[in-house]
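Researcher: I'd like a structural prediction for the single chain below. Treat it as a standalone chain; there are no partners to consider.
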Amino acid sequence: MIKKNCVFFALMLCASLFSQVRIAIHEHRDYDEEQLKKLEQVKTLMENIINSEEFKNEILAMKVSEDNNPDHLTNQQIYDIIMKADEVAYPNSPYVIDLNLRMKPIPFYKPFTSVVGYTYPGINYIVTYRGKFNDCELYDLVSHYTHEWTHKLGFGHEDKKTWDFSVPYLVDDIVEKLGRKRVNGNQ
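Model: Treating it as a single chain, here is the predicted structure.
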């Protein structure tokens, strides 16, 4: 009986280890050495948050607007999609957040933008504005990368009036809140 229990718990441990999401940064174009150090801290914080029970509970409790949930997914389904991390560009790497990152200067015609960066459908990378990256706290960058990455999972925000209740914005609010707690020593 003891041997059976040990095998069972070993299998459960292995299953939990394999269901943890990890982040793979495949490309980091135009990041300097200091920015790469900061990016590594962001990656560690992002993995810690997404793999936490707090994150799961927040996702299961969030309120997504119908306008931003055309497939009528439940919160559990949304959480499962996030945790499987099966992006369109990397369909055969489950449980790995695959990131291709590019750093660009803030455009001259947007000198006072509040936008940290962006991505578009059809491209497999996330752009971050250099000035914003340098000025942002770690939790703000986790929020930015997570928001943009959820687009790579197929989540969007169609109607500007309901953006705040879309998966990308709700998830970025959740990871920012949890990141702020961790960075400020409340976790």
